[in-house]
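hiii, so i know i said id send this last week but things got crazy w the move. better late than never?? heres the sequnce for the chain we talked about at the cafe, plus the structure i predicted for it. fair warning i was half asleep when i ran it
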Amino acid sequence: MKLKRLNIKSTVYFVLAVILMAYFFPREGKFRYLFFEGKPWRYQLLTAPTDFPIYKADEEVKAEKDSVIEHFEPYYRMDPLVEATQIDELRSEYAANMKDKVPHAYPQYIESALIRLYKNGIISPQALEELKRDKVERINLVENNMSQLQYVSDMFTVRTAYEFILNNSPQSLDKALLQSCNINNYLAENVMYDKAMSDRILDEKLNSVAISNGMIQAGERIVDRGEIIDHHTYNVLRSLKIIHESKSGGTQIQWVQFAGISVLLISLLFCFWLYLWSFRPKIFYKRKNVLFLLLHITVFCVMTELCVTYNWFNVYIIPFAMVPTVVRTFFDSRTALFTHLIVVLICSLMVPYPQEFVLLQVVAGMVVTFSLKDLSERSQLIRCAFFILLSYSITYTCLTVYQELDFTKLNWTMFLYFGISFILLMFTYILVYMLEKAFGYVSAITLVELSNINTPILKKLSETAPGTFQHSLQVSILASEAATKIGANAALVRTGAMYHDIGKMENPAFFTENQKNFNPHDQLPFEQSAQIIISHVTDGVQMAEKAKLPQAIISFIKTHHGRGKVKYFYNSFKNKYPDQEIDEAKFTYPGPNPFSKETAILMMADAVEASSRSLKEYTEEAISELVNRIIDSQIDDGLMKNTPLTFRDVLTVKQVFIDKLKTMYHTRISYPELKA
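okay and structure toks below
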């Protein structure tokens, strides 16, 4: 029995929520100090817990590596076989074909020029163009595993080498005869880019760039309270933060973190569990309600976790105030604020500047609670969003001025984030509608809109069956007042009362409140009359479903007679045919019986109001006798056995009905007759 009272199935939802949030929770260790260059240190004396290097800033390391890349001199390899091969070919060609045509001085000059050209290096035009485009002045020229620097300006291509030989020939040599020696045949590229060696040496140089520029010894003083954090101290603190967060790596440490955050999440959600169990049992014992609340907590926490982990956008863009707004729309203000506090506390474990985050979000949550105290119009959601934007802006401005003592220190980007969050909050209007459909809820806003007598169904009811419409108004007055007295949902029962008899529009003349001087039942058998009366329930359900009314409203149509009987025709049949066996199904409403305080109140109000029209005199005694007789009869027939009404509730409802009917019919006390 105790396990049942603890609602095990709802508790499972809490466990699943903890596992899901803990799984997405950021794994890196979080440095517990916040610090800014040029700002005072706000904590106690800090000393080095261990030896650690002073890391350079990422920008500084990147600048040094960029400098290495910019000044890197690539490696090219010279092939000595090219020079030897080409000179041998020149000598062979001269001995075989040019000895008798060209003097010896010509090949001698060409050979000496080739030796010089190949020593400087002949490179492809594309490679030379790339070197000039990259503004490389020198390269490392490797020959026989020996490297020497070579200026790019001293190197040649095949074309410039040919021009060099012609333009620098001695005056004693005839250029035309020199050209006939086919100089191009002895020119070839002997320098090639060595990508493997260049990449390897560049990587070595990049890896040799120091990422730190000093060491801090264990126990060394770093900073004390009130001291201004200069550039050096800032780098020391940043290095300590890097060391601290790097220690969170490793499977074992991550499991320890997972266990720690899981226990913390369990503690926070257990407080929420206790709140629902202790103060909101109506919410706690309905799994749908628990799922609804935990879904909002989990979604916003996971969204924050992903935002912080992957740095998608600033966390203040997330419309956290949507949580209390939506929860307040369907539940009460205290539950909305408590749910919001749980979300804020969990998210504060992940976000930067947690104190600022908690302050801003708690203020926004309280603004939602106050501005939506009496929620009855959708326009209130829009107005609430403006109040939230204003609260964010004022709170942030005041906090910054308090901490910095300077308006110029305001981060104006924060106001942009608040604006984006405000725009997202405007979609709460649509979200409420979607959640109503998904969870089958009916918000107070929807109830107010549905109870408007200008809605299509109610307007048609007032025109088609005016007597029924007036009856529905009277029932709504009785039922809502009774609901208020016993702590039921007055708005829900009022709206349900307005729609409970819409099925009578199919055959309005068959119901006494719409009749004038003719009663069509006089011409019909009792069974047929009973079926026509009963059909207003099924017809009403069909009309409501066609109009897409909420299921909560349709429940009032189904249950306002429960599994009761059409007693007028049932009793008339029994009286007329006492010996004949009666088919009770033909005189019984389809039901079901009422299952909540609200549906039970409507059943009682409907029967009492309808019966009160038949009273011959509206004295206090007559009204009291009528109310007690009608309600006691319903209880005796077992129609209320599935409702959570107590004896005290029933007595309260009876008294409300008596007082209201006395007011409606302007009753006066019965004057005693003068005895003779």
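btw The chain has three domains: 2-26+252-439, 70-206, 454-664. thought thatd interest u
miss u guys!!
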